[in-house]
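User: I'm putting together notes for a lab meeting next week and I want to include a structural view of one of the chains we've been expressing. I don't have a solved structure, so I'd like a prediction I can at least talk through. The sequence is below, exactly as it appears in our construct file.
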Amino acid sequence: MFCSYKFKLKCVELYRQSILTDIPKGIKTDNFKKTMGKWSRILEKVVVDGLKHLNQSKQ
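Assistant: Thanks for the context. Below is the predicted structure for the 59-residue chain, given as structure tokens.
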């Protein structure tokens, strides 16, 4: 699942407020909730830069 940096930040903010954001088409609700939890934990540990894509993966 490839999501933009801004989308990830928005999802994490809403996740921390216990609000479910719009789920992209083709993704199961449970998988998306797990992914938002993973992003939230990354932000707690690494701060904001942890959600940005690496330059090498932008090909």
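A couple of points you could mention at the meeting. The CA atoms of residues 15 and 49 lie 18 Å apart. The first helix runs from residue 5 to 16.

User: Perfect, that's what I needed.
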